[in-house]
Design goal:
single chain; about 150 residues; alpha+beta; 5-stranded mixed beta sheet; 5 helices; rod-shaped
Length: about 150
């Protein structure tokens, strides 16, 4: 068994790295990629410095273990990666904005068109055409005040 490890050379690490990266293409999960990268690093270092097979195995273990936190850090999306902080909070994006009432608010309830959507609004009785400001959101209901 030791003869097998002694015969492992630089090329074997490089081939092993490319095989692992090729397997990543067949079974994506981004795990084998980092192991393949660790094997490639061991192969490249072995080209530059003649090291024993024991040191090569230790280097591979260290590089593979170090790849996990690096992968987790790189794969974590930034807090505002979507570019739209209100992507799933559409009503919160309306808070504080002013709109014109299309239909009057009667007895504290009415509707208002914003873009292509009709919203239920609550607030003081107000005639159509009045500028109102969204002061509170509750689910799909907007509370407005005269702007």
């Amino acid at each position: 068994m030791t003869d097998m490890f002694v015969s492992l050379g630089t090329w074997n690490w490089l081939i092993f790295g490319f095989i692992l990266m090729g397997l990543e293409v067949l079974a994506p999960g981004v795990f084998l990629f980092w192991l393949g990268l660790a094997a490639l690093l061991v192969g490249l270092i072995s080209f530059a410095v003649a090291v024993s097979w024991q040191v090569q195995l230790v280097m591979f273990a260290i590089f593979a273990a170090a790849a996990v936190p690096v992968w987790r850090r790189l794969s974590r999306p930034s807090p505002d990666a979507s570019g739209s902080p209100f992507l799933n909070k559409r009503t919160e994006a309306l808070l504080g904005r002013e709109f014109t009432l299309e239909k009057p608010i009667i007895d504290g309830n009415g509707t208002m068109r914003i873009g292509d959507t009709v919203w239920r609004v609550a607030g003081p009785d107000t005639p159509a055409g009045t500028r109102v400001k969204v002061v509170q959101v509750d689910g799909v209901n907007l509370t407005v005040a005269v702007a």
